Amino acid sequence: MSEGDSVGESVHGKPSVVYRFFTRLGQIYQSWLDKSTPYTAVRWVVTLGLSFVYMIRVYLLQGWYIVTYALGIYHLNLFIAFLSPKVDPSLMEDSDDGPSLPTKQNEEFRPFIRRLPEFKFWHAATKGILVAMACTFFEAFNVPVFWPILVMYFIMLFCITMKRQIKHMIKYRYIPFTHGKRTYKGKEDAGKTFAS
């Protein structure tokens, strides 16, 4: 391999200025993501705020309904992945190759592991809103369409998808939401202490 053949290297073997700039930019972005991880409520409030700003922009511009419909479908897809288990129990039904969700009362408790974790769900949803917002600055994405049809399609798709997901949850007996660690009550300590 000759000098400068690897990605991001200049002719003299040092990383190029552009490569170093984007590497540093990626490091700063990742640092901000890492710092925001424990602030779940704040992250979602910011995302809902961005969503609200996007909806106001679309309302005021009276266009970009296809972009909004695509954003809704994308968010629905993310939400379904968020509600789904990492290992689909319907695929594990016939084989005993690995762990599965408990289906009987006496089986061992196994925590629900999502196919799409909450942080990745938030990150993807926020990026989707920002991309949709960027699309509203380009007239090429403003395809004329009768928007009530799109709203009706989306509502139908949402209802059908959620009905299928809820049936799946009932059939395989899993709940995608947990409320912290389970606590078990033992016997009350009413005993006397023995002095040595």
From TrEMBL:
The keyword Transport does not apply. It is found in: Membrane. The chain crosses the membrane at residues 41-60, 66-83, 145-162. One of its GO terms (biological process) is protein retention in ER lumen. Coiled coil: none annotated. GO terms for cellular component: endoplasmic reticulum; Golgi membrane. It is a multi-pass membrane protein. Keywords: Membrane, Transmembrane, Transmembrane helix. Involved in the retrieval of endoplasmic reticulum membrane proteins from the early Golgi compartment. Belongs to the RER1 family. This is Protein RER1. It comes from Crocuta crocuta (Spotted hyena). The lineage of its organism: Eukaryota, Metazoa, Chordata, Craniata, Vertebrata. The gene is Rer1.
